[in-house]
């Protein structure tokens, strides 16, 4: 970890490891490993506590197309009126574009966000807290099955609709059965036919939960 001197008046600009973990929706240990790998810059207080530079976190977020921390929190009224958020975690540009086209044409009430890999997807999930998660099984960094297993340990995940998307046939999916059990799965060759009705059903379940 890089030792960085910080004057007292700038202490409030930096975050504890736990604060960064909460902002990114990740485990504290995962953030510690990011510091150890040099992905985030940090320093230690005289008491030995690790502090992560806000500028370093902002650079990491913006480098992945995410909003920096300095934007402030959205007003509660705006949050209440927001569109339903859909997060697509998919490394294929072709399928990213295809999902974006389907959503824009058939679901203008949805707000679509896209992550290119599993690690970025975990971070975006923590930031966005999406209503619907579309995730490929095979992803760089961390596969979709492991990603979903990690997310299921978070209380907020209980309110998210999950749909798997994969090019794997049923036999090839067997190693991931532990994560796929009782969850909708779309075979990529049938994406155009199967995604719209599955999204419609997810939206209906979300609406029923909201009005209950």
What's the CATH H-level homologous superfamily of the largest domain?
Response regulator
Using only C-alpha atoms, the radius of gyration works out to 19 Å
Task: Calculate the mean pLDDT score and round it.
Answer: 81
Helix content: 40-55%
Main sheet: strand order: 5-4-6-7-8
Do you know the CATH architecture of the largest domain?
3-Layer(aba) Sandwich
Task: Please give the structural blueprint.
Layout: E1 15-16, H1 17-24, H2 28-36, E2 42-44, E3 50-52, H3 54-62, H4 76-80, E4 84-89, H5 93-106, E5 110-115, H6 118-128, E6 132-136, H7 144-151, E7 161-166, H8 177-180, E8 185-187, H9 191-211
Parallel strand pairs: 4-5, 4-6, 6-7, 7-8
Antiparallel strand pairs: 1-3, 2-3
Explain what the structure shows.
Keywords: Phosphoprotein. This is Transcriptional regulatory protein YycF. The protein has 212 residues and is of the alpha/beta class. It folds into two domains: 14-62, Orthogonal Bundle (Multidrug-efflux Transporter Regulator, Chain: A, Domain 2); 85-210, Response regulator (Rossmann fold), CATH 3.40.50. The protein contains nine helices and eight strands. The strands form two sheets. The protein has a five-stranded parallel beta sheet. Helix 5 links the parallel strand 4 (84-89) and strand 5 (110-115). Helix 1 (17-24) crosses helix 2 and helix 5 crosses helix 9 (191-211). The longest helix has 21 residues, at 191-211. It is elongated. Residues 5-11 and 71-80 have low confidence and may be disordered.
């Amino acid at each position: 970890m890089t030792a960085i001197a910080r004057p007292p008046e700038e202490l409030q600009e930096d975050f504890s490891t736990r604060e960064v973990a909460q902002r990114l929706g990740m485990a504290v240990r995962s953030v510690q490993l990011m510091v150890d790998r040099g992905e985030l810059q940090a320093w230690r207080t005289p008491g030995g506590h690790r502090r992560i530079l806000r500028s370093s976190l902002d650079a990491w977020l913006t480098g992945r197309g995410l909003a920096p921390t300095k934007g402030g929190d959205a007003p509660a009224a705006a949050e209440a009126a927001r569109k339903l958020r859909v997060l697509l975690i998919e490394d294929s540009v072709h399928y990213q574009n295809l999902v974006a086209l389907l959503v824009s044409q058939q679901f203008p009430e949805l707000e679509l966000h896209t992550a290119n890999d599993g690690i970025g997807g975990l971070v975006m999930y923590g930031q966005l807290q999406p209503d619907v998660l579309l995730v490929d099984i095979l992803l760089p960094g961390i596969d979709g099955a492991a990603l979903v297993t990690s997310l299921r340990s978070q209380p907020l995940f209980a309110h998210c609709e999950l749909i798997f998307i994969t090019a794997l046939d049923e036999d090839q999916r067997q190693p991931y059965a532990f994560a796929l059990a009782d969850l909708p799965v779309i075979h990529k060759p049938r994406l155009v036919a199967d995604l719209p009705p599955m999204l419609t059903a997810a939206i209906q379940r979300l609406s029923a939960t909201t009005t209950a």
